[in-house]
Amino acid sequence: MDSPNSLSGPDRVLVANSCPLTRKWIEATLAVGVDGCVTELVSDGVDLLIRLAEHGPYSLVVTSASLPGISGSQVLAMARTAGLHTPFVLTSVVADSSLRGLVARAAPATLVEDPLDTVALRSAARAMLAQARPPSIGVEWHKAFASLGAPMPSAVNG
């Protein structure tokens, strides 16, 4: 399967979940179900936001909607406000109308309800990667995240 970013290397997937076992399960599930993806793991919303700002762009973000610090749903909203179009897969035990509305407005994004299911997670990840636009790397992207208070990567600072 060709990745949407095949010209620039393997798909980079950022996984954020507060539970170490769940993070590892998601990593293993994606390794088997999404050809050639490389995953990076974080445990909270602050680290998720910093990773997006300093190490992006990513092909996909898989995050729990409720993370310690800044929630995954807040990071999704911030990313869209900043003009970042990286696809998101949000996972949640409680998929209320507010969360469903956010996901609907924040395309490309989808929701997978907990308890997580291997087939559902792989299917959602594949669908989001298929929709992915090639990420733009540039000063404008970094400026957008800087406006949210995220530090500028040293490569952009000079």
Kindly describe this structure.
The chain starts with 11 loop residues before the first strand and ends with a helix. The protein has 7 helices and 5 strands; from the N terminus they run βαβαβαβαβααα. Strand 1, helix 1 and strand 2 form a beta-alpha-beta unit. The N terminus and C terminus are likely disordered. The chain has 158 residues and is an alpha/beta fold. It has a single domain, classed as Response regulator (Rossmann fold, 3-Layer(aba) Sandwich). It has a 5-stranded parallel beta sheet with strand order 2-1-3-4-5, sandwiched between helices.
Largest sheet, in brief, is: 5 strands, parallel
Q: Would you state the CATH class? A: Alpha Beta
Q: Spell out the helices and strands N to C.
A: EHEHEHEHEHHH
Sheet with most strands: strand arrangement: 2-1-3-4-5
According to CATH, the homologous superfamily is Response regulator
- Structural class call reads alpha/beta
How many beta strands in the DSSP annotation?
5
Domains (count): 1
If you average the pLDDT, what whole number results?
Answer: 84
Low-confidence stretches: 1-7, 154-158
How many DSSP H or I helices? 7
Which overall shape is indicated by the principal axes computed on the Cα atoms? globular
Instruction: Write the CATH architecture name.
Output: 3-Layer(aba) Sandwich
Oligomer: single chain
Distance between the termini: 37 Å
β-strand amount: 15-25%
